[in-house]
Structure formats: C-alpha cells, structure tokens
Amino acid sequence: MHNENITDEIREECGLFAIYKHGAEGSHLAAQTYIGLMALQHRGQEACGIAVGHNREISFHKDTGLIEEVFKDEKIIAGLEGNRAVGHVRYSSSSSKKSKENAQPLVLNYAKGQLAICHNGNIVNADVLRKEYEQGGAIYQTTTDTEIVAYTIARHRIGSGSIENAVFKAMKILKGAYSLIIMSPRKLVVARDPHGFRPLCFGMKADGSFVFASESCALDAVDAEFVREVRPGEVIVVEEGQMRELTDLCGTAPSKICVFEYIYFARPDSTIHGQLVNDSRRLAGKLLAQKYPVEADIVIPLPDSGVPSAMGYAEESGIPYVEGFGKNRYCGRTFIRPDQLSREQAVRLKLNPVKKYIEGKRVVVVDDSIVRGTTTGINVKLLREAGAAEVHLRISSPPFLYPCYYGTDVPNFDQLISHKHSVDGVCKIIGADSLAYLGIDDLPKIVPDLCDTGFCNACFTGNYPVL
Amino acid sequence: MHNENITDEIREECGLFAIYKHGAEGSHLAAQTYIGLMALQHRGQEACGIAVGHNREISFHKDTGLIEEVFKDEKIIAGLEGNRAVGHVRYSSSSSKKSKENAQPLVLNYAKGQLAICHNGNIVNADVLRKEYEQGGAIYQTTTDTEIVAYTIARHRIGSGSIENAVFKAMKILKGAYSLIIMSPRKLVVARDPHGFRPLCFGMKADGSFVFASESCALDAVDAEFVREVRPGEVIVVEEGQMRELTDLCGTAPSKICVFEYIYFARPDSTIHGQLVNDSRRLAGKLLAQKYPVEADIVIPLPDSGVPSAMGYAEESGIPYVEGFGKNRYCGRTFIRPDQLSREQAVRLKLNPVKKYIEGKRVVVVDDSIVRGTTTGINVKLLREAGAAEVHLRISSPPFLYPCYYGTDVPNFDQLISHKHSVDGVCKIIGADSLAYLGIDDLPKIVPDLCDTGFCNACFTGNYPVL
Amino acid sequence: MHNENITDEIREECGLFAIYKHGAEGSHLAAQTYIGLMALQHRGQEACGIAVGHNREISFHKDTGLIEEVFKDEKIIAGLEGNRAVGHVRYSSSSSKKSKENAQPLVLNYAKGQLAICHNGNIVNADVLRKEYEQGGAIYQTTTDTEIVAYTIARHRIGSGSIENAVFKAMKILKGAYSLIIMSPRKLVVARDPHGFRPLCFGMKADGSFVFASESCALDAVDAEFVREVRPGEVIVVEEGQMRELTDLCGTAPSKICVFEYIYFARPDSTIHGQLVNDSRRLAGKLLAQKYPVEADIVIPLPDSGVPSAMGYAEESGIPYVEGFGKNRYCGRTFIRPDQLSREQAVRLKLNPVKKYIEGKRVVVVDDSIVRGTTTGINVKLLREAGAAEVHLRISSPPFLYPCYYGTDVPNFDQLISHKHSVDGVCKIIGADSLAYLGIDDLPKIVPDLCDTGFCNACFTGNYPVL
Amino acid sequence: MHNENITDEIREECGLFAIYKHGAEGSHLAAQTYIGLMALQHRGQEACGIAVGHNREISFHKDTGLIEEVFKDEKIIAGLEGNRAVGHVRYSSSSSKKSKENAQPLVLNYAKGQLAICHNGNIVNADVLRKEYEQGGAIYQTTTDTEIVAYTIARHRIGSGSIENAVFKAMKILKGAYSLIIMSPRKLVVARDPHGFRPLCFGMKADGSFVFASESCALDAVDAEFVREVRPGEVIVVEEGQMRELTDLCGTAPSKICVFEYIYFARPDSTIHGQLVNDSRRLAGKLLAQKYPVEADIVIPLPDSGVPSAMGYAEESGIPYVEGFGKNRYCGRTFIRPDQLSREQAVRLKLNPVKKYIEGKRVVVVDDSIVRGTTTGINVKLLREAGAAEVHLRISSPPFLYPCYYGTDVPNFDQLISHKHSVDGVCKIIGADSLAYLGIDDLPKIVPDLCDTGFCNACFTGNYPVL
Lengths: 467, 467, 467, 467
Known about the structure:
The structure is a homotetramer.
Chain A: E1 14-20, H1 28-39, E2 47-54, E3 57-64, H2 67-70, H3 74-78, E4 84-90, H4 99-102, E5 106-110, E6 113-123, H5 126-135, H6 145-157, H7 163-173, E7 176-183, E8 188-192, E9 201-204, E10 210-213, H8 216-221, E11 225-229, E12 235-239, E13 242-246, E14 257-258, H9 260-265, E15 271-272, E16 275-276, H10 277-291, E17 298-301, H11 307-317, E18 325-327, H12 343-350, E19 351-353, H13 355-358, E20 362-367, H14 374-385, E21 390-395, H15 417-420, H16 423-430, E22 434-437, E23 455-456, H17 458-461
Parallel strand pairs in A: 14-23, 17-20, 20-21, 21-22
Antiparallel strand pairs in A: 1-4, 1-10, 2-3, 2-4, 5-6, 6-7, 7-8, 8-12, 9-10, 9-11, 12-13, 15-16, 18-19
C-alpha cells in the first residue's frame, strides 16, 4: 500500500495539552487530557501519549496511532492516576521506522527524579547542541529535538535550584521554535520561546484546574475558560495549587506567531492571540475576491480547509457559493491507498465533484495552499471532467517559496512547485485557467485582531527570525 | 466506556456495492470494491465485508469495524481475486454480541453451489417466514433478515432453472424493503423490492465493468458513469459479460423511495432517482425560511448534515450564514466516551460553539431531525452558555412520530420525543426560544427532480406502504 | 512464511468441555471452561470458543487462535455469565480461509430457541445428508459436519417433544464418529455415537457441578472427580440440577474407541475407558523391545510423544535411556517458518540432537508414527550429522496404510509413505539402519486395562467399522 | 487477571544472539537471528528485539512479547536487511509499566554514529555510575543497566580511537555481571565481564558467518559449529570479515560462571564451558540419591526442569522413575490466571498428578529449587490428594539463602523461604515427609567437565565475587 500524503497537505507537527488540579486523585485528569488531545488531533495523527504525575512518580502510555486507537483499552486511561497530566499528539518528520521511539511525552529520569516533556516546534541549533552534548558522552534514543531540550534542561538543573530555573537557562541556549510543557516530580512547567512561533494558551476550569493547550478549542473541549496566551518568552510554574511566572525573557525578541496557523493549521474555532482563525480565513477569501476578481458562475471550496475562504470570496464577489465537491469524511489525512489504485482514484475517493453544479460553469476554486502541485492538478482535471467551462484557482496564502524550520513540514526547495516555477508556470502545470495567490502584503490584513504580537511569514518571504 | 450514540442520530443500516468485469483476474475488482465501500461508509460503520468470485468459487473477508480497519492488512485485498466482487457496510440493530456473525456478505453453500448475499433493508414478514422455515428444520446462525432472504431463495432454487428465477420467486414472498446484490457461481444478480424503499443504482466503467451501488457517489468513486437506477421490482442478471433484466414485478407497487435518504442518510453529492441530495437539503432550508421566518442575526448549521439546509435558510432569509459550531472531525459517529466524562462533555468535544460569533446574537440553528431530544437540548444549552441571546431551532424534516420498518433505526414510539410531546412541549424540553419543523406537505417540494417515483414518509405520517 | 506442519504430525480435530451447575450465576462456569479447554488444547489449536447459557439465552465468544489468545481480554470471560457453559477447541481440515466461520460452538436459532453445539468427530454420511437437506432448502454457512448435525437435530425437533429425543432420533441418522455436547434453552445434552470412536467422559465437582470432557485430564484441571465414560450410544441430559440417560442405542454397535488416542492424541495423564494413556505408550515400547531388539548403546525418544515408549523400550531392553534430543518448547505445532529458512532448519530448531550423547553411539530412536516420512528423514540425518554410528527406528504404532474417516487428519493414500512403500522401502527413504513398527496384533496388548470396549484400528487395517 | 509467576520459578533475565557475515545482503541474517532467539526464548519471554546493520545504518524492531508474537508480521523480518544482526530476549525485573521502553537492543545515536547494545547481566555499581552521569547532565529513558553501559561506553569513545577500546575502558569501570553484544557503524563487538558470570559462546557457520550466543543450543539452531566460549574479560571485534581479540582483562579476576545456569536456567542440550547441562542435572540427582536416600516406591520429577535430576535419582537409587505429573504444555511461564480461578487451580492446570501412579505410593519428588515455597506446597498437597502415602522432596540445588546481584531474579531475603526457615521448618511448611537439598560441597561435583573456570554460588553461600 502507498502511505502517501494523498492530499499534499502541509502538516503541523504537534499539539500539547496539560492539566493540573491541586489534590486531584484517580484518572479524571487523564480523561480530561484524552479529551483535550482529541480536540487537538488535527495537529498530529501519527503518535500520541499521556503522562500523569502522582506524588513524585510519573506513569505514562504512548504509541503510534490516533488517540482513539492508542487509548482504546479503557484500562489505560483508568490506570493513569494523578493530580497533573500532560499529553501530546505528533507527526513525525523523520522516518516512520523511528516513530514509536519518537512518541511523546518524553519521560526520563535525571539527577532530580523524573520528567515528562512535551514539545511543539523545532530547535534550529539542535545539531550544534547535539554534537556538543555528544562530546560529553550523551546518547540519543530518539531522533527528536525534544531529547535535545531534555539534555539542555538536565545539564542546567544541577545548581539551578529549581526546574523552572533550569528551563529558563535552557531557553537562553535553545534557538528556534518551541512551546514546552514539562512535568517534574512536583510541578508543571510551561514555556514558550521568545518569538512565540507555536501557539500555547492558558485557561482555568470552574473547579480550579489549570489548563494549557496549543489551541483554545482544547480549552473549550474540557470546559475551561480561556484566560490568556502563554506569552512568548514566558515560563509558567504551577505548584501546590499556585501559579507563578518567570517573565525575564518576555519581550527580548519580536513576537513571531506562525501565520500559517491562521491559514491552515489551527482549527477554525480556535482563537490565537485574540484572532479567531475562521475570521482570518474568511478575510483571506474576501481579499482574494477584491484583488483577483474573475467573471465566474460559482465559487467552490476545497473542503474542509478552503471552506471559510471560499465563503469570503463568494460574499465579497457576489458569486454564489456552492459545495461543488462532495467530501468523503472517512478517508482521513492518513488514508492508505491500496496498490491496485492510482493516485487519481485516491483523490477522487476523497473529493467528488458534483457534476450537476459544475457542468458548464465557470468555477472559482478556493484552496489554502499549493505545495507540490500534484493533487491540485488532479483536482483541476476532475473539475474539467465534470464539465467545468473554466477553472480559476484562488489560494488563500502566498506561494510557498522557502522551507520552514520552525516545526512544520513545509518541504525543501526542490519539492516546492512555487520555488521552481512562476505563478504562470504553476497555472499551466496544474491546468487552471487562472491562478492567484494572497499577497505578502495581505497577510497583516487577515489577522486584524491579532492583539499583541507580530507573525512569522518565513515560508513565503525567507525572512527567518532566527537561524 | 459508554458506546452510546452521542449525537442521537438515526442510522442507515447498510450500503451495497458490486462490480463485474468479464475476464477480469487478480484482485483489481476487490480493490474497486474497497473504494466503493469507502464511498458508502456513511451508510454503515459497524461491520463490512467483501466477497469475490473466481470461476465457481467464492472467497471473502468480513469483520466488525470500518473498512480501513477490517482491510488494513494489504494481503487481504490482494488475496481476493476474481471477475466479480460484492461488498457491504452495515450497522447492527441487534445486540453488539452478535455483530461479528451478522457481518455481510452472507456467504453460504446450498443446493447449487455457493452464494454471497448483500442486503440493505428490512423484511417485514421475516418473523412469519422464519417460523415457517423453522418448522421445516431451518437453523439460523445470524439475527439478520439476510438469512431469511437466503432461505427464501434457496427454497425456490430447486426447480427454478436459474438463480434469477429463484430470486424473482423469492421477491413475491418477501415483503418489505430490500435492495439485494447476490453473487452465484457464475452470475451477479441484483434486485430491488417493488416499492424501491432503499436506493440502488447502476453504472458502467469505460473498461466495460458493470457497477452497482447504493448511491451514485460510489459510482463516482470508482470512475463509473451513472447509467440508471435499478428499477423498483427489477431483477438484473450479469453473466458472461452480458446484462439481462427481469421486469415483471416493476410497476406492481407504488414507488416508495425513503425520503429520509434525501434529508439525512445519503451523501449530499449523491443523486438518487434524478434528485441531487444536496439540493433537497438546500430546498428544505429555504422552505423553513419561508414558512417559519424569525428575526435573527445569524443562521448556523449543526454540522455536517445541517449545513446545506442552513445555507438554504440563510439564502432565503437574508440572515448571514455563520459556521457557529467548530466540529471535531476526529470523533466519528462511533466515538467512545470514557467513563470519566459526562455526555455533555462528549457533545462539547464534538461540537464547539464559537463564542465570538454567538455572543449576544439571535441565532437560528438548522438541524436535520430530532429523535430523542437529549443531544439537541445539550446543543441549545451550549449556545446559551456561549452567550446566544435567542436560539431558534429549525428542523429540515417533519417530527418523527412513527418507527421505521424499512431498514433504518428510527426507534420505537416510547423513545421518540415528538411522539410523546407536542412541538411546544419539545421546544420547552430542549430549551429553545422557538422550534419549527418542515411540514409533511413540504416533503414533495424538496424532491422536485425526483424523476419517476414517489417516496415513503411513514416515519412522519404512519402511512406504511407495506406491513 | 510457510505455515506448514513442520513435524508431520497427525492432528486430532477437536476437544470438548461442558459444565453445568444448578443455580450458578456470574462468569464462574466460563472460567472453568477456559481452564478445561486449556487442558484440552493439545486436541486443537486452530480455533476455540465458549458459549454460556443464562436462562433461555446463549452468549458466546469464538475465534481462530489458542485459548489464551482468543480469551486474552479478561472482559470476555467476565461477560459470559450463566449456569451452564460449553467449550470447544479445534483443528480445521478444510481451507484456512474458512476457519473463522468454522470455529465452534456452533450457536444457532431454530424452532425451539437457541442451541450451542460442540462436535468432535466426522459424519461419514454428511455428504448424503447435506444433499438431502439442500433439496429442502438448507443453506450452509460453514464447511463443518457440525452444521449437518445441527440440521439433523433441528429437523427432528418438531414433534420430538424434547431436545434429547431429537438428538436421539438424529443419532439414528448420523453415521460415523461423533461426541456431542449441546446446550439448549434449558438443558445440557451430551451424546456419543454408538461405536464411541471419540472419547467423552463425565465427572462431578464437590460443589455439585456436572462436568463433561473429551479427556479426564480436563476433569482433573477443574478438580472434578471422574465418574465414568459417556457410554457409546448414550444420550445424557442435565436439567434442573438432575441428570438422566437415554440408553436405547447403547450396545447397538461394537465399541470402537480410536486406538490412536492411546498412541498419540490423548494426553499421557488421561485415562480413557480405564486405560491410562501413558501406560499404553510404555507398553508399546516394551513390546517393540521384545519383538524388535537391536544391539545398541542408547535409546532416545522423539520428544514429547515418543518419551514413554522410549522409556518402555529402554526398560525392557536394558539399553540406557538418554534424552538425545533437546526440545525447543517455544515452537509449538503451529510454528511458522519464515521464508528465509529451510524446512531442515525449522526441524533443527525444534529438535536439537545432543552430540555428546550421540557421537559414536548406536542409537535406537522411538517415535509414535510415520506419516509422510519427510520429517523422520530429517531427524535421521540430524542424528548422523551428530555422529550416530547406527540409527534404528522403532515406531510405537503399526504403519499408516489407510486414511481415517472418523475425525483425525490421517491423510489420503497418496500421502502415506507406508501405503506407497514397504517397510524396507521406507527404511531406505528415511535413511535408517533398521526400522520396525508395532504389530497389528500388538495393539490389544497396549490397552490391557481397556475396561468395556473394543477399539478402532482402521487406519492400520482398513477395517472400517462404518462407512 | 493475575499475571503472577504461577510456578514460583527463578527467572533468567536475558539471552543474546549475534551474527556477522561479510558481504551479506537482504534479510537472511535477521531470519537467522529470529531462529537463534527462538532457541534462547527460555532465557526471557517478556520482550525481544532484533537490530541489523547495513553500511553505517542500523534498523531495528522490538516490543514486549514472545518472538513469534513480536515478529508475527513477516514483513518485519523481511525489512531488516544487513550484513550483521544482533538480538535479545529479556525478562524485566522492573515494573511492567516500563517494559516496552526497556526492550532491547538499545539502539542509540552518540558521537560516533549509531550503536545497538544487547546486555545480559547486572551492573552492581550501576547506581553509583548513574548518579555520576546524572551530575554531568545524563538523562535516562529506560530503567535498565544497559543504559548505564551505553553511557559508560559513550563517555569513553571520544579519544579511544575505536569502539572496542571504548568498550575495553568501560569494562574497567563497570562492576558486576555482563555479557555484551554491540553493533557499531562498521563492527560487531562482543564482550564478557572478567568473572564471566553469564555465558556467551562463539561459533562459525560453514558459510563463514560469525555467530555469538548466550548458549550453544542457539548455535545448533542456526547450524553453526561451536568454536569456543567468549573468555571472561575478553573483547572480540568482528570487522571486514575478520575477528580480533582484546585479552588484557582475561585472567584479571577468577572465573565465576553462574552455577544456577547448570541447575535451572540453561537448556539441557546446551554445553557451557565444556559441561553439558543435562549431565549436571543427572549428576545432581545421583548425588541426592547417594546422600539422601529414602525408602520409596517411585521417583517423579517436577517437569520439565526436574526431569534429568529425577532420572539420575532413580538410576542411582534403583527406585523406578515414573512420570507422575502430567504437564500442560500450553500454559507457559507467562500463563495468565483469570480472576475467577484460585492459584491452586492454576497450578493444577499446569501439573496434573497421575493418580494411578501415585495412589498408595511412597513418592520421591525431584525439583530444581524452592524459592518462596508456595507452589511447592501446592504440589505436595496435590500429591497427597492423589493418594501418595509419603512425599519426599529432593532439591537439586542448595537452599537459596541470598539474593542474586548478577542478572537473575532470585529475590530478596524476606521472600526466600530458606532464609527465614530451617530445612525442617521448610519441610513442615510445605507439608512433605522429608526434604533434602544438594549440598554446597556437591556443587563442584555436578560440573566435572567444567573446563577452565570456577563458578559463582553466591545465592547459596553469600560469597559474592564482586559487590
């Protein structure tokens, strides 16, 4: 079978969740974490895990697979008892062979007892640190940056007085993108890199539980009230039912939340730094309609991520919005294609053009991005076979020109169709009648509510905040 | 864990698929059937199976689970070789204990060799026939009506000259709803009850393959051209690369396609008897807006089935359509709720109200139906907690007042909230500000393209076509 | 991988167990059946199942695999509650494709409610009956004789007044070998064919439980006292805490317990019809030493089945007994050979000649039987490579000359090396210095304690008691 | 369910296997390792793994379970290609929660590339080293000593010039028992602690493959010729088809092979340091008969480990050897006892006294050891229930008085019945008529062929060679 990325989507690489409730017993917090991770499943479908802390002891379960698969046996959750829990969902950018070993939380013993570490992001100086630590005798059992984070903290723990101070020191050494949730023998420690590339927010439940999650939709899922973002550069410690902040690194670097979270990664019902994701997507669609209008009969989305932008385009242009593709909700991102089937048949299975709507029509198709271009080409072909008179493609992000080093799998130059071809060239390759992208200068306009932070657009501009 | 029907949805009970290609070898047709069943997965998620015929021998694989689960090991499909294949997805209305035994196709030996039988529907005189056959020494190894169908055919096969004649004779005895796909040692036989309760259509692939499927979306998935519906009362035989029809039962009963296929069961991109399902839903929304207007700020759907109706309502009323609920695409209909979680939390995980859109707003919510009312009540509560000023519920079908005996799991009277309470009563119970249903007399209006057939509305009216 | 029968052993095809305790509740009896089947696992390792009766309802679980695998999830046993339980272990003589469907107990509905049927044996007129029933419209969902048994009972149930009478009538029709355990809505019915080919015994537990099992070792395992054999031709009914017998068929045919049960199938610690199996094997070894002496240095067994016979040979001959083969206890009868390995390597993995004991020695090797001769040839080769000066093979049964029609898998003529070659010819093919078999006339001598019954030796003589 | 050690056996903790063939390609060596590990399965049944090296890259698969389970999917072995392979079977002495993480080979990245490490033994200064490394920032992801071994090697690799030199340096630091097999980017390195506590031998295949294994039975299984033991203190390097030795540590400590390998752990067909294991056991039985004779009617073994000693006792005493216990070959050491069953019933399932042999007899029972005494007591009780007139227990090892720190799970003082009670006291507790153990001074007599080495008897004497 072909375990390929049928829909040629960019993948987020992780989602984080943590909950702490003073005095909690039993497996209630593990169950909350299960729910929180379910709400974050879109951020990683390859592996997942939950660790809980009871007194000074950490127990955990993790494996490759979706949350419902990995925690299928109800005894697993029931056996994870404690007053704090952390969870993780992930994609692996490394070889699948290693994926079981790379599942998180990374649970380890070190000089001060046990730690469970959950990490979302990418450490750009990981190779340098890896080599440095190796010279001191370090061994690596995974291929994740998380292990580098762990070593960095462990090396600073002696003499730091506390785990949070060790984390703080580690943050001065680690360069790149990271949101971290760490469980120590007594504490929950949460941290975010000074640029704040990857999202991380904080909420409270009515019962006094502290909750942290990559996206606000996970707070909603566990009925926690959103309180605020974890600030870029901030370290938060929860201990003995109290929360403290270390803020010395806040403001030491420009805020750089990943703009592609708004365009594609995050769930539309999540609010990140004050900006509702669904709004960003609608706005992108409206901007496309303003800047790249076209005479057409219908606007259709590539479901599901293209839906809000297509709605925005339709609203702005006055062209009717139509659900032109039927979507098969049962072949997820991980759909396995049997050997006997062509890639085209796999795409067709997932997205079925509705001939009645398309036949003879001039169609505007709105999608969030084009990576390699292969799937987009098949979609255009399917629309033409369904009788589309014209196919005009509108993309709610700028062209991918540069790889991402901050925790997504935007691939290298040679695989990015926009790096190798002009917009006209891409349009020809995929067979569309016209093609237009959101402009770089439009990006600020799709996040008008972004309260207190800038954003990273390096994959579109090559302006890497840190390297 | 609680294996409950979190979202209180009515379940279709089966989907059928078959393909025949003269001279075909290898596992290509099994792979096509895999794809066809993937496209029909929404019609049954509890068990599935595929049988293939090679010369006079039938081999098969079936089990409980989704198609991707049951056929996960690629060797299974690769081992199913033949020139014809039939497949089935199902829900079980009986106890889960029996579900493995009840998986279809039902593969059996009888006087004339092997048969593989796939059935969608419900035989209303099954109990009578069961007792009759029992008196003759019959034994039953499943609790499905399919076994009654099998016995009825087997008993008429001797002296019938052919399997199709035996099927034809059986159809005179079997009362109720059935679409059948049967594979005999040399033939593929397809039949539909004279009322045509459950859909079944026929298509051709460019390579000369004959394809049959419950819905046209499965023809699309395997790139087959829709040719026509299997007619109510018709028997089709495919043999030696030729297709023949037995039509003597066609027209002997009024056509009664299930109208709830249009409202909820079928995929929106399927066309049944000439009527595009998505259009029916949009129309239902428009009709609701015309007949039950309300002063409101936004229209929101209960995703996913409420989306087209909500769009229709918004379009007709001019009230803005907003995606007011974020949907978790990873907890399917079969989501298992851990013991530690309340039903409310499970619903919240699946549907997350977007506070920014809802707060302070008068909201029209469009859903397809209300069965027991429990989930609807939770949804209204979630909207109020999110700050909705008013919640007006519009249902794109009439109230369920009667159980269904034709192959769906519309439950018995005592569980139907509308059977026990007036519309006002239901409105109070679920806590909405207003509640309105599509009228019985509106049903014909939502299927204007329905080409050559009437429909069954017994669950709303009690007018049972056959009992 | 090669799923071959590495050790070329003959396979018994089934083991039965049942327990009834008046007023029992919970899953205690299912657990006892689990233990009873564990003790009978040697009689069938391909599939197994347990059914329990609670009031008039039967629930069950069965699948392919060993008992520990099929009932691995402790919830399965815990969920099987009732006051009576039946269990089955089996080999399949039919194609592996069908094995899941063929697992027993066969649980069915018929005119009088539910039945669970467990069968050990082979119905010689199954094909005749199958065709007769087919003409009446019967359908078959398995390829087992058990289904023929079920139909025969079901057809006679109407008008029989009771299940036991129906079983009694069925016994007059069924020809061949069968031990049956049947659970009806209120009763446990146990029966054995008039020849009594396959063993079946009865015991009581101190708590008043009635226990039935293929071998006495299963009674021992559940701490039941052996009471007596189920008599050939007998029907036993347990109901309302009472046991009754129907004995009209007892004595209507000569007793014909399978002698190969003593030679190979049964566990050495089982007593069948008064004869301890281990004693039979020791005696066979002694007889071989008396009739086929040889100048040799050591006697070694093919473990495990050859051990008692080799001990007998050593004791009688005065030649030292030595454990000349190390046995790998972890590659069972179902050992799967990876593609990369030769058959010889697989045999070597299982049986490792101890060079120190064998080198330069004249070796007598005692085994229970030779079927195809391939594995025996490899074993002789391994002994020569280990330095054996001479290899003398002594077989504790006569040569297989005829297939078995009574429930074992002694294969057809063309696969039996002794059917195709003389003893001398076999000796040359397998490369031994001498070869001798137990004589036909010695068979009575190895079962001196056999209390009240004759035995079947058809596989050695062709004297088939029933055909 | 109760996952207890039903038979109260001491568990070896590991088995090692490695094979190197210059220029080998494909998965042949992985398949050989599969076979080698199958032959060593008795040394560890909790987890297993295989790693192969191809050029500088290591790929691997490991998990909890038996070898046949973990490598059930044939694609796993087929995907492990290379010219060298290492494998491991293990028990876990730590909590089961951690077992998946603790499976070996431990595969890691360090300063010089990848390593795969297999370890059998116990590092007595592991805690000291662990703390030392922790102070330098080390993190631990398992709870095995293997990780300590890995860090020790990694810390000395820089500046050592070669992996073998690093291993050599590490051996000066590591105290305790260890046999090691290490695969580096180009080499296979094999080492044994200077005392040689745990066995490790070397053989060659006719095709030039170098093979290393914990026991010679694994060499036999892959048809390798035994060449010699890996010497205590020796480091062997295989590289570019050549083998070299580092012998500077040989002879620096007295040889101390674990004597319990001969008594219980090793397979009887293995030869360790020139001593055939089966011979040791027979001799132990003879010595018991000489020193502790008793008037009795039969000698019976506790199968399987007591068989050779019971044979020796019978031979020396002239009392007939009888297989007094039937053994269930299907409940392995890992047998899971369902909740509904008593421990006694679980023991009875495994070992079934043959009443015919035992009733009215004075019985000598030979077993290899008594740990906690619970199971022994049940066995004595079962024999008395079977009618034994007298039960005399003879143990083929001295009483366990001290825990083992060298890689077995002989438990702590408080669990050792012999530490808490005199021989007479133990005899009373278990209910035997007499009880005698092999003497400390008899130990040398059971290993007369032991060629060039002394042995460790610390568990009997407290004379710990290293602490």
